[in-house]
Predict the structure.
Amino acid sequence: MAQQGILIVLSGPSGTGKGTICRELLRNYPNLHYSISATTRSPRLGETNGVNYWFTSKDDFQNMISRDELLEWAEVYGNYYGTPCRYVSELLDSGKDVVLEIDTQGAMQVKKKFPQGVFIYIVPPSMEELADRIHKRGTDSLESIKRRLSCASAEMNKINSYNYVVVNDEVPVAVSKIGAIIVAEKCNVSRSSELLKQICK
Ligand code: 5GP
């Protein structure tokens, strides 16, 4: 039986660079797979359905909730976001690692259902830097930027529920720290029972 994959949950205030970190992680770790979330938010310029998100209507999202198809879901900045569970559980069962890039409300739901997950919180080097990054990104309306910044401080109070905190000062450094966390977690005794059985037989 394959050792179950690791579920990695990445959260952090909007604009911390979680998306960039995720892309780099996926490029560097072939066993790592991205869970594509469903959202009722409209696509931003350059976003593609089935790549960045599954863009869905409110009705379809509601149906996914009632059919119990979501591992977690939350309302974030006025839109709904959720993780379809089937894809995640199939990957984990086949030994693949999965990364979820989700907000703190969703992360806490996952933690209840899946405490063996690895919960990593990404922080910006400073709140000034965060504001600067969101403005420079240029993808959000002024109203959305204000909302995202005012949520950031409240979000940061949830850090204690996570296992690790990584500062995203330079992307390659943050990515290599997360890589080190993945390697350490793979070697954790609690995840190695299959391996130990094989060695001792
Ligand atoms: P954005 O609109 O910038 O793509 O994402 C807004 C926020 O929603 C981010 O904090 C992102 O991590 C979070 N998010 C994206 N997908 C999900 C999801 O499936 N579930 C939850 N709970 N949050 C999500």
The chain is about 45% helix and 20% strand. The chain has a mean pLDDT of 93.
